Amino acid sequence: MRAEKQGHFTLDEWRRGIKALRADTVRRSSNFVDFYTCSFRYCLTEEKQKSIDIESIWELLTLVLGSQFSAQVDLFIKYLKIIVQH
């Protein structure tokens, strides 16, 4: 995304990066896969890590899909929180 500061994006940097990844819409599934892969790799904190923490997943779901599918995202996050508790 070529942000000036890693992990902190201005709105313009975010929009430019999303467009560069061609992930500005979830309707183009191949572009969304590229965006997901980039986001997933960004959240990894260790080189050999194969998963990200659940809190980051909740935030990514809300960030990426929440504006368009808020009811579904909210229900899914509630479901995940129930699973984590058990």
TrEMBL record:
Q: Which InterPro entries match?
A: DCN-prot, DCN1-like_PONY, PONY_dom
Domain annotation DCUN1: ranges: 1-86
Quote the cellular component terms of the Gene Ontology held in the record: ubiquitin ligase complex
Q: Note the superkingdom of the native organism.
A: Eukaryota
Q: GO MF annotations for this entry? A: cullin family protein binding; ubiquitin conjugating enzyme binding; ubiquitin-like protein binding
- One GO term of the biological process aspect: protein neddylation
Function, as annotated, reads: Neddylation of cullins play an essential role in the regulation of SCF-type complexes activity.
Name it: Defective in cullin neddylation protein
User: Which species does this protein come from?
Assistant: Quillaja saponaria
